């Protein structure tokens, strides 16, 4: 999927000057009538946090409410919504219920991914009661979608805490050394192998996980312990995309034939690991830091995504609450995702603080 500069600028200009989401122009910039294509919305990391009674942290509510409202205004309408995980902050039933109440206003079917903030209080029991299996697959218009629970960890770590509340509190910390690396796990990898065995190697594969399915920064658990084992199951396929939440920032990368795209959060942004001096990181070279964040705007550096799939490849259109839209798409000539604004530029300036 090669984007023309003229077509790209037409789409971006319309986004800047038109209505809230003039999606049509952006989609036409990517369109190829000889191939099936479709659009879906991608919302992630709302971190709904309970205070007391019917009171929740208002700012996180508002971020999710805005994403839902804007998704409902998309033209053309998306086929479905993918929610990337972390509905709740501390996995409390009232947090999950409140988040699902807001998400129920979406006018489209929703497919859910498990996040660690939904899981570590009760091993995801309440989330599963409301939403079903923690991993599954489905097919849509010639694309095979796989949803994984990538935030599992070692049984020995799970069982050493005095309560689920203590365990959840540890895993909720961004930089708590008592935490444990995330993983997909052997049982789920066996399931994935069996699931993919039924799929033709030419079928485009889109995998949705919460953690990255790659190793970026272990201190913050931007890291999946068995990432290489999962990647090896995906490598035989011609076109593979991994969409993930968790990191609250724009990231993209290419490993072999697998393209990786992150999701923004509707709650708050995290800085890039390379700005954090306490430990080294494996931040992919292809990542270009987005121009954010302004500490005087509480919603800056947050947002949601709408995803175009054309010819089995993904273009991630980032809708940023207090910043300019961004488009990251797979460039056939380069063989990896690029940021449309900075294509061909080795490093991007930080223009917005």
From TrEMBL:
InterPro entries in alphabetical order: Calcineurin-like_PHP, Metallo-depent_PP-like, STPP_CPPED1, TAT_signal
Molecular function as annotated in GO: hydrolase activity
SUPFAM superfamilies: Metallo-dependent phosphatases
Calcineurin-like phosphoesterase domain mapped to chain residues: 39-249
Name of the protein in question: Serine/threonine protein phosphatase
Species assigned in the record: Pacificimonas flava
